[in-house]
Amino acid sequence: MEQPAPVSEAAARPARRRRRSVEDRRRQVVLAARRLVLREGFEALTMRRVAALAGVSTAALYLYFADRLSLMAAVADELFQGLLAAFREAAAAAAGDPDPRARLRALMNAYVRWGLAHPDEYRVIFMTPITGVAGHRPGAAGVSAAPSGQATFALLQEEVARLVGTGVLRPADPQVVAEAIWAAGHGLVALLITKPQFPWSPREELSRTLADTLLRGLSA
Amino acid sequence: MEQPAPVSEAAARPARRRRRSVEDRRRQVVLAARRLVLREGFEALTMRRVAALAGVSTAALYLYFADRLSLMAAVADELFQGLLAAFREAAAAAAGDPDPRARLRALMNAYVRWGLAHPDEYRVIFMTPITGVAGHRPGAAGVSAAPSGQATFALLQEEVARLVGTGVLRPADPQVVAEAIWAAGHGLVALLITKPQFPWSPREELSRTLADTLLRGLSA
DNA sequence: ATGTTCACATGAACGCTGTTCATATGGACC
DNA sequence: GGTCCATATGAACAGCGTTCATGTGAACAT
Questions:
Q1: By 3-state DSSP, what share of chain B in percent is helix, strand and coil, each rounded to 5?
Q2: Which of A184, A205, A218 is facing B176, going by the closest CB pair?
Q3: Quick check: A85 and A65 in contact, CB under 8 A?
Q4: pTM of the model
Q5: A137 pLDDT higher than 80
């Protein structure tokens, strides 16, 4: 339809064309799910609602995803790009700052701000027991594990490694340090989301104190 | 039955006796729910299963609790005592240490260790959107907000205040600092529980790095 | 002793969930 | 034109939280 192939190649085509179509539909489902989260929140992310919004039957979802968590993993991978964009933006904004720690601080702040600004998306990505983007139903074995997520963490990890390498931060395993920073940021976002009735100090102050303390503790 | 009151007081008694009985039942339900979590994990905590184990009908639960979250709040209050005990134990163990920061460090480590050792209980307490111990059905308005939880956080907050007061930690609002420490610890536990497949560094190393970094950043 | 009242308890139902499966359907190949 | 097979579906299953009309039995008044 898109490109009328020679008849001689027609034998090899169908499989490809079919697979293409399947992946298109799969992607369409993921996008519908994303729209659902953005518009109606985390709780709206049910198989029936996603199917209805995507215009397919509920059972059809199980042709593209092993189960609900696999679908959510695919959605998470999509949502990650929002956080990734915020990361890149923060890093760019801190480019001119003379303080070598500015970029790392900007990443920390961007993470917390993004999480608090997008709690429903944050819940999908970081507060749901998701393994990574699992493969289609027949393919059984899971495939690529959330590339966007890895890219995002890599950004943090590389920045830490850079600062350790240049001696700005005291000698340490960048992997461990990056994980610790991530954990600290996640804890703040997650607790504020889960326990909103706790008498929290102002969020700005809290976020600043956490980032400052970590940076001070890590500095050489 | 327990104490045959004079007939003249009989008019006032029933209400009291009845209330007592109701609270006993309520407590019995909470204990059944706790046993369920301990033995079968977080997912087993359903209204039907709790009711069955407590020996009452499912509908009866709604006489004692407004909804499922209220029941879980009561269970959380019960589970908190485990963490509180771990906190007290850790504080006592650090009593002889010459380092004035030893107790705070011990609290941080105890928190993370307890959470990782009791993930199902941790999920009930800290990873479920719970408001506090809500009142009975008719009473409508919620009552005491998780006393054990408050006591636990108070322990951390007081220790921070003590160290700030003695000049061991740099001047800061103990409330903000305590919240930040809590958030950091929570993040580590929560992420390890939610994303067990992530290629984490060894837990001991992670926990130590996080605690050391925070202490170093907070020290005067 | 009898009648009345009312807090407490329940079985059954409602609408929702994730998931499975027998049954179509329709295009690709022989 | 007939066969096959990937794709799609409606219906069903078991479970969930929650509600409500219906008991039931002890406490009180007469």
A1: 70, 0, 30
A2: A205
A3: no
A4: 0.90
A5: no
